[in-house]
Amino acid sequence: MRILHLASFVQGGAGRAIVDLAVAQRRLGHSVTVLSSKTGVPGYGNYEGYLDELMTGDVRVQLVDSMFLRDQRATLAAVTLLSALFPPASEPDVIHAHAATPSAVALFFSGARRAGTPIVQTMHGWGVMKTADQAAADVALMNLVDRVVVPSRHSAAAIASRGVAPDRIEIVPYGVTPIGEPLDRRGLDVYHAMLRARADGRLVIACVGTIGPRKNQTLLVEAIRRASPGLPIFCVFIGDGETAALEAAIADAGLQDRALVHGYSRAARRLAAGADVLVLPSRSEGQPLAVLEAFCDGPLALVSDIPELAELVEHGVTGFQFRADDAASLADRLTAIAQLAPQTRRAIQERAHLLYTERFNAPAMVAGYLRVYDRSRTASVRAPGIVPAA
User: Fold this and answer.
1) pLDDT in tens, 132-187
2) How far apart are CA 197 and CA 168, in angstroms?
């Protein structure tokens, strides 16, 4: 099968899923191409490590400006490149778009060829900064493609409530591979600091995700301030994004010796695996890979009780929840986790790992998408030649 992935950027958790999916599909013998944006914009850009993994995995990678901008000239530039990459009669068997703008590119390309190529879009997450017009356009695009895939029941309900036709929506949970990436020199220094903190009797915390208001890392800073007078803590914040506000919050709370901002790291997962607890204080999420990786690797997951995370982490069974945006609740949970009996901790880790092996492994994700591709090829809901309105 010829599979074309269209992505605004290959970054973050969504990028990790795209890389793992594309590389696995190539290993299964499919011809796989990934097209993404060439030039980043503030807050968005390809991870070079992800692009390296794709190319090492024999996936064809092409970059064009732009798969991100909501600009018709940029869309047509991407379509022109696709026309050169896929001569007539060699079109992809399926196009997998990873956001609404890539879906627009896919619809224009397929319509120009009159090929009726099935188009599947994954809605990895609903951006909180969309204008009303942008949101309406994205829903309209999702209602033009053959299938819209989301990772969770909550995500399915959320886009249906915004107007996406329910018969187009399918659920394929993310899956993660066993841990693999090594520690680089900078990561090794942080890892040794985590080991020293544990040897000193501290509770070691990792907080993974793009740094900013949506992931809400400053709430964890306040919770550490509340808990740490009686609870020794060492916390590492790992993720891309602007770190100045988080670093200022740590300094204002007087936690410079208890909290470290590591920023982006190719070895983020290896560092998180070395923690006692993975904390996600997020205000909104899709299905964060960091939690699935914790299920696989061993840290206990402690998450805010927003619906997306409450669906994923069962309190007291596969991890723990705290009240969203409530620093006191988070501080109390950290104290309770530090006091867990070893056998209780092991039981939760075993249940979480079982959930990973049964539901959130990479082969299950790959098989789920291939089933969606097959259904979209045999039961397309689009007429050949359809393109979105200019």
Assistant:
1) 999 999 999 999 999 999 999 999 999 999 999 999 999 999 999 998 777 888 88
2) 49
pTM: 0.90
For 278, the enclosing helix (H) or strand (E) is strand 277-280
Measured distance CA(199)–CA(203) in Å, rounded: 10
SS3 292: helix
Answer whether 211's CB lies under 8 Å from 246's CB. yes
* DSSP 8-class letter at 316: T
**CATH architecture for segment(s) 185-359:** 3-Layer(aba) Sandwich (3.40)
Class in CATH terms, 2-175+361-378: alpha beta
Instruction: Give the start-end residues of each E strand in 58-186.
Output: 60-64, 94-97, 119-122, 147-150, 169-171
User: pLDDT tens digits for 280-335?
Assistant: 999 988 889 999 999 999 999 999 999 999 999 999 999 999 999 999 999 999 99
The encoded tokens of residue 220 equal 């964890």
- Measured CA to CA, the distance from residue 60 to residue 97 in angstroms comes to 16
Query: Could you give the CA distance from residue 14 to residue 5 in angstroms, rounded to a whole number?
Result: 12
